[in-house]
Automatic annotation (TrEMBL):
Keyword tags: Glycoprotein, Hydrolase, Protease, Signal
Signal sequence bounds: 1-19
Protein name as annotated: Serine protease K12H4.7
Gene3D superfamilies: alpha/beta hydrolase (3.40.50.1820), Serine carboxypeptidase S28, SKS domain (1.20.120.980)
GO molecular function: dipeptidyl-peptidase activity; serine-type exopeptidase activity
Family from the record: Belongs to the peptidase S28 family.
One of the protein's GO biological processes: proteolysis
Matching SUPFAM superfamilies: alpha/beta-Hydrolases
InterPro entries, A to Z: AB_hydrolase_fold, Peptidase_S28, Ser_carbopepase_S28_SKS
Length: 479
């Protein structure tokens, strides 16, 4: 939601893999912050804990090893336990070396953990990623993994009275929220950053927010993006148009106009360029990613809006992989070693629990009307089997919202942070649930930026939001 972020050395448009999770096919996970110093590395250890493959079947005694990282540098006996929850990515050291959680640990003498989600990174519960094996990839199982992890740590001498606070961003923000909801005796508080806790199949609001975020830069930017996509859609139906698109965008294959999935697959590549830009919207070389994008799309010296779009999505000399059938063939592979990234695992989660499909089924976007819900649900059946159809998806999405409360979960001590630039805020909590579960809406900020340390390039609202979060969590720890 987190998500969704979906993702990792090979993706549909590799040059765009900036990554914060939950964005289409470009999953790199939560971007690890860079520490100011290297001295903390020696304090971080990698460890493993045995987990049941299926927590809910007492007749299944299979187990697997879940990876986690630990930093005990600041810990004092019965100090708090702070846990960064991993999502659809492989965990690494960054959040145990710097960032918001690290700062709280240093202030409150906490031990820090970073847990890896089952089926991601080195945490592999099953021999392969077949549909049969992936049945154990669910948030229910992931929450039970975390509950067992916390219970094990709390039974260790020196931790019996430790307050537990969990942190999550994007889909792992969902996990943090729901861990507090389902296991309140184990978790005293949670920070859910950019957490899309409302499951929804047709997530057309995503590109509505993308369009609005571009509009804040300039209406001209929005207009030129719209003109560019109109030109692309026109070429798709013109004689020799697909061949021209292959040449213009340096595609690996000519789009098959007789295949709706192939057409939409190509359009998804183009549209996602803008989704990724807005979602991640960091400051690079003194300007935001949105500003850099709009400078290209409004630069008349680069030619027509279509030519500017070509310039924006340029992938150098490497052709863009745009063929739907090749895409399906790649991600049908069920062996761990053949997985180019986490796409097969993450998309399975969207097909069975969340949806999150970023369509253009809205007249409030600049990206035409070329991305339908059917395109995404066809991926579900093409990758995992006919059982995973649209009807199944709707049943499972309803279950997720019933099980976990949708946008109105009944809980306390959860902070929801969202940026108004971030397209995922449309599925998150934007108003206080109650006095103990506040929502902090950050003007000018995007996906999960509050999880990092203060920076000179941060907007003032973001700095104030972090200060508020530190104060609230400090209160949980000291109470």
């Amino acid at each position: 939601m987190a998500y969704l972020s979906f993702l990792l050395v090979l993706c549909l448009t590799c040059h765009l893999a900036h990554g914060v999770g939950l964005h289409g096919f470009h999953f790199h996970g939560l971007e690890e912050p860079r520490p100011l110093r290297k001295s903390d590395r020696e304090n971080i250890t990698e460890a493993w804990i045995q987990q049941p493959v299926d927590h809910f079947n007492p007749r299944d005694n299979r187990t697997w090893s879940m990876r986690y990282l630990e930093n005990s540098r600041y810990f004092k006996e019965n100090g708090p336990i702070l846990i960064m929850i991993g999502g659809e990515w492989a965990i690494s050291r960054g959040f145990l070396e710097t960032g918001l959680m690290y700062e709280l640990a240093s202030t409150h003498n906490a031990i820090m953990y970073y847990t890896e989600h089952r089926y991601y990174g080195k945490s592999k519960p099953t021999k392969d990623t077949s549909s049969q094996s992936l049945q154990y990839l669910s948030v229910d199982q992931a929450l039970a993994d975390l509950a067992r992890f916390i219970e094990t740590k709390k039974s260790t001498e020196g931790f019996e009275n430790s307050t537990v606070v969990v942190f999550g961003g994007s889909y792992s923000g969902n996990v943090a929220t729901w861990l507090r909801l389902k296991y309140p005796h184990l978790v005293q508080g949670a920070l859910a950053s950019s957490a899309p806790i409302f499951a929804k199949a047709d997530f057309y609001e995503y590109y509505e927010v993308v369009t609005e975020s571009l509009r804040r830069y300039s209406q001209k930017c929005v207009d030129k993006v719209k003109a560019a996509f109109e030109a692309v859609e026109k070429l798709l139906t013109a004689k020799d148009g697909p061949e021209k698109l292959k040449q213009y965008f340096n595609l690996c294959d000519v789009p098959d106009v007789n295949s709706s999935n192939d057409r939409e697959h190509f359009m998804n590549i183009l549209v996602e360029q803008f989704g990724g830009t807005v979602q991640y919207n960091k400051v690079e070389n003194g300007r935001t990613m949105i500003a850099a994008c709009c400078e290209i799309m409004t630069n008349e010296q680069l030619g027509s809006p279509l030519q500017r779009l070509v310039h924006f999505v340029s992938n150098g000399n490497k052709c863009l992989q745009n063929n739907y059938e090749k895409f399906v063939k790649l991600y049908r592979n069920e062996t761990w070693d053949a997985q180019p990234d986490i796409m097969r695992q993450w998309f399975y989660q969207t097909c069975t629990e969340y949806g999150y499909y970023q369509t253009t089924n809205s007249n409030k976007t600049s990206f035409g009307s070329s991305l339908s819900l059917r395109y995404f649900t066809d991926i579900c059946t093409d990758l995992y089997g006919e059982y995973y159809n649209n009807e199944f998806l709707n049943v499972r999405i309803k279950r997720t919202n019933v099980m976990y409360g949708g946008l109105r979960p009944d809980l306390r001590n959860v902070i929801f942070t969202n940026g108004n630039v971030d397209p995922w805020h449309a599925l998150s909590v934007l108003q206080d649930l109650n006095t103990l579960s506040p929502a902090i809406f950050i003007n000018g900020s995007s996906h999960c930026r509050d999880l990092y340390s203060d920076s000179d390039t941060d907007v003032e609202d973001l700095i104030q939001a972090r200060a508020k979060v530190r104060k609230i969590i400090g209160g949980w720890i000291s109470s």
